[in-house]
């Protein structure tokens, strides 16, 4: 029974590593490539492009990874309770906390901004400018934060198995 439990724990941890890595990559791509380049486009193009991205990202592939990342990290920590040494368990708890915080920031920060952008009136140049001004800087700050947290989750999950004495 221990071999089966260890196998399940390893699979769950691997899923956590992969899903958090995928999210960190998506968020990183926005931080270092998409958002910086979007600074150079006009307000109408910016709002249209971001609304298109918001619609495209809501698909089964992304949503399954987005939900699996925090769930698998929390599950890894729970599965390690009483079975791993304190160092390994500690790394898993930190990874779970980082992944949950990244999820929470997305849900409480980025998603409401995305929805507001989708609903914003864009019928005049001034409204487009105001919409972008209210969206771009806060969205980028939240994205940078979740990038760091998702990367930290990935790193701690990779380190965790090596924490055993």
UniProtKB/TrEMBL annotation:
<keyword id="KW-1133">Transmembrane helix</keyword>
<feature type="transmembrane region" description="Helical">
    <location>
        <begin position="46"/>
        <end position="69"/>
    </location>
</feature>
<protein>
    <submittedName>
        <fullName>Uncharacterized membrane protein</fullName>
    </submittedName>
</protein>
<keyword id="KW-0812">Transmembrane</keyword>
<dbReference type="Pfam" id="PF08592">
    <property type="entry name" value="Anthrone_oxy"/>
</dbReference>
<keyword id="KW-0472">Membrane</keyword>
<feature type="transmembrane region" description="Helical">
    <location>
        <begin position="12"/>
        <end position="34"/>
    </location>
</feature>
<dbReference type="InterPro" id="IPR013901">
    <property type="entry name" value="Anthrone_oxy"/>
</dbReference>
<feature type="transmembrane region" description="Helical">
    <location>
        <begin position="89"/>
        <end position="111"/>
    </location>
</feature>
